[in-house]
Amino acid sequence: MSRFFIFSLLSFFIACDFNNDYGTGRAGRSLEQADSLKIIADVTPAPGYKRTNQDKNSFGDWLRSIALKKDKRVYLYNGEPKRSQRAQFAVLDISVGRKDLQQCADAVMRLRAEYLFSQKKYSDIEFRDNANRTYRWTGGSDHTSFGKYLETVFGMCGSASLEKQLKPVSGFQNIQAGDVLIKGGFPGHAMIVVDVAVNDKGNKMFMLAQSYMPAQDIHIVKNPTDDKMSPWYEVSSAKEIITPEWTFSNEQLRRW
Fold it and tell me: pLDDT for 40-68, tens place per residue?
């Protein structure tokens, strides 16, 4: 039975679920991004911190280059604004598509796949479903067909299968750009680490991005526990990472 059929019957069991209540901000108010914020790399770390070094053309380097939309509203796949507009700091300029497919883990897979596609590493683009069936991209540089391939991946794979595919990171302090916070399951959730900064003492901070349910624009989330540091999160000894719409354990960090 495909996930497309399960989708229509049990939509509240797949991919993501509501966890943290972060208010019901209305979409009608003005939400424009500052002119100085064109790409993720323009988001300034806290004083005393600087971005970690990234090799040219690495995944972390590519993530920093993603453009940000001028409009900070998060829209759903059907063009409607998300009911709550309080979770996002910025919205990535990446299409959500017109189907309710690109949810949380799907957005993580989309970013990874688009990076590999941009580097022409076509043979590295593959994802596995819960039955361990592999979905490989074999269409070369055809980006139109690539979009259709991703729809198939989003329909058959999710947080449960992606968690199995990724490798656990030993020690949260070893967090890197491109890592994934993920709770696989039905429901589950996944968020990607889009950037990391460090200070002279070796203390780190990081930024997270997500999609959610229903499928919606990928967005950098605020830090609901520290307005001054937001949208950055501090790497600390805390066992939990509290985000606007989900709480993770510090043992749920994974890597490609």
Answer: 999 999 999 999 999 999 999 999 999 99
Q: With bands split at pLDDT 50, 70 and 90, how would you rate the model's confidence at 20?
A: low
The alpha helices in the chain, defined as continuous H runs, are 3-9, 59-64, 104-118, 143-156, 159-165
The residues spanned by each domain of the chain are 3-255
Q: How far apart are CA 126 and CA 123, in angstroms?
A: 8
- Other C-beta atoms within 10 Å of 126: how many? 15
Closest CA to 128 of 89, 165, 182, 172: 165
**How sure is the predictor about 1, in pLDDT bands with cuts at 50, 70 and 90?**
very low
For the full predicted model, state whether its pTM sits above 0.85.
yes
d(CA 174, CA 156): 31
- Omega prior to 168 cis, within 30 of 0: no
Which phi and psi (to 5°) does residue 116 adopt? -65, -40
Q: How far apart are CA 28 and CA 3, in angstroms?
A: 34
Q: How far is CA 81 from CA 101, 131, 158, 216, in A?
A: 16, 35, 24, 9
Q: Are the C-beta atoms of 73 and 108 separated by less than 8 Å?
A: no
User: Which DSSP helix (H) or strand (E) runs through 168?
Assistant: strand 167-168
Closest CA to 7 of 156, 218, 212, 217: 156
User: How far apart are alpha carbons 34 and 20 in whole angstroms?
Assistant: 27
